[in-house]
Each structure stands twice: as C-alpha cells, then as structure tokens.
Amino acid sequence: MANVQNIPSMKARVLTVMATRAQDQELVAHAADEMDSQDQKIVPCFGWHPWFSHQMFVDGQYKNASSLSQDQKVEHYQSVLTPKSGDRDLLLALPDPQPFSHFLDQTKKYLQKYPLALVGEVGLDKSFRIPEAWLPNQAEQRDDSLTPGGREGRRLSPYRVSLDHQRKVLLAQLSLAGELGRAVSVHGVQAHGVVFETLSETWKGHERQVLSARERKRQSKNKLQTKSADEDEHNEDIGQSSPQSTPYPPRICLHSYSGSPESIKQYTNPAIPADIFFSFSTVINFSTPAAEKTETVIKVVPDDRILVESDLHIAGDRMDGYLEEIIRKICEIKEWSLEDGVSQLGKNWKRFVFGRS
C-alpha cells in the first residue's frame, strides 16, 4: 500500500491488482476507490491464493461456525496439512481459520460493487510450504509498511496444504466467477495436470459443439444477416450488459504460465466453452533455466490469447520496467513489430477483462 501513490505517474495506464488473503481484500478495494477519481485506473481482483488456503475451513464438519475452538483449530490443521503434525503448539500458533462461506459472501459483495472486478489470484500449488509462526522478536521488528500476512523472511516449515483442500477452495471461487460472469486469474505451480482437471470439472457437460469449417461459415453468415442495429449498439457498451451465469468462468488467465507447449493445445481445444489466456512475466518465466522452454511455449500460444504481467507487488518505475521488458521479449519471440505487438497485447487484455476488445 505504501506504493499506491506511485501509480498515477506510471507509464502503465491500467493495473490489474490481485488480492491473495484476508488482510488485503479491503486494501485492493480501497486502492481502486482511491484511483477511480484519477486518470490512472485499477481493475480490482478479489481472491484467496493457494498459499493461504489452509487458513479456511470449507467442509461441513463445522457448519455455520464463525470461529473454531482450540481443539477444532488443531483438528482442522491436522486434516489439511501434510504430513500430519502432532505439534499442538505449532498448530495453535498458526492463524485462526476462517469459514470459507464468509469469505465467499464478502467476495460476492466486492464483485457486485465493482462491475469489472475479476476473481484472483486463485489456483493450486504443489510445491509451497507454509511459513513457521512468528517468533516474539520477529513480530516486534516486522516492517509495518508491508501488508500483514506475508512470509517476510520467516523460515519455511515442512508442511504443505493438501491438494484436495486447495481444490475445494479453488472450485468454490471458480463457481462464483461463473455465477457473476467474471474472468479469473489462476496460479499453478507443479500442478499443471490437476489445474486442467479442476478447470475441466467446471465446464463438464457444457462443452461447445465443434462444427466443420463449412458449417461455421454458414452460421456466421446467418448471424450477420439477422443481427439488428439495436443489437450492434448494445454490444458496443462494454461492461454494461449483464454477463451470463454459467458453472464455469467465461475467461481464465493462467498467470506466469510455466506449463508445456503440449498443454497449450489442451487449453485451446475449441470444445472448451471458456476462453483461456496465458500470461508471462520476466521475473518468473525468464529468470530460471526454463526460459528456453518459455520461448517455445510463447511461439505456440495463439496471438489473441497472450497477456503480459509484472508479477510484482511494488508499483512504480520498477513495475513499468518489468512490463516493458516482457512486452519487448514477446514481440521478439513472436516476430512482431513493437507497435503491432503493443496493439495486439492491448486488445487481448481488453478481451480478457471486458469480454470483448
């Protein structure tokens, strides 16, 4: 939040800002309100990141409970963390779990308040481990300018959150996005197969009928002949029409995508009713030995499905630099001129956020 004041002077005209945990949902909303009166805009995004998914209880065991007793808290963490811990003191030192239904209700209200808001950042992560609890001296010396709830240099514990629990948290948020017709930003690390399976679960039974080229041409011609002038005018009003409610999100971005080139073909199957986008950042995709694979992936991604991001929590010149760097990198790989590339990426972003470019 200490960097929000830097946003108006940035070269980037619009920022898509993600919430991740309990402490920053209202802060994202506040930042959006603060920027709304200025030329610089924020598209707020509300979601619960998998790194914090253990802090929610979602099963029916504690139905209608607004808080848990100490014994229930220990029981909850023993059920969602792996390996199972018998260290009661360690589990009691973790944040008090919250009812996921309360978070979903809050998120729905935010999405209704901000008609263009997205759901994010959500997803699955097989590699992360939860940080150890704060030691007394660490808590006293922490940087108060940082939003609470982050790792902030704490050692990592040996405990991970079960994928089963992460999937419950993810599926509930995907369902909400589908209900309100909002796009979603999805995090996936070392779980690409499970991410695809989970997303596929939301649109199962709603797949598009794949038509032959001849039939598509015939239907397209009929639509053009029957579309009225009133419909044309209505469709020009971006964000004004009520989105259709579906069991699946209409648009999904796989952020800082690190999957294989072969997986791109899975996600771009014309039978999938959701539009899948792939975003890339230099800080994640080009800072590891996997950079060569990323170049291959970017070449495979359809031109109208690629997005850019900084994946940075600090607004200002540094974020602008990361954005420019990834734009230039993609233009180089795609063999686009800089002007054509910026234009294409802008259209893609508008289509992802608004549903049309």
How does this model look, in words?
- The protein has 357 residues and is α/β, with parallel strands linked by helices.
- The chain has two domains: 18-137 and 153-205, no CATH class; 250-357, Metal-dependent hydrolases (TIM Barrel).
- Helix content is 44%, strand content 13%.
- It has 14 helices and eleven strands.
- The protein has helices at 25-36, 70-80, 88-93, 100-113, 136-141, 163-180, 192-203, 213-226, 229-235, 261-267, 282-285, 291-300, 317-334, 338-354, and strands spanning 14-18, 41-46, 56-57, 81-82, 98-99, 118-125, 160-161, 184-189, 251-254, 275-280, 306-308.
- The chain has a seven-stranded parallel β-sheet, with helices on both faces. The chain has a two-stranded parallel sheet with strand order 3-5. Strands 4-7 form a two-stranded antiparallel ribbon.
- Helix 4 packs parallel to helix 6 and helix 13 (317-334) crosses helix 14.
- The longest helix has 18 residues, at 163-180.
- The chain is globular and about 65 Å long.
- 33% of the residues are buried.
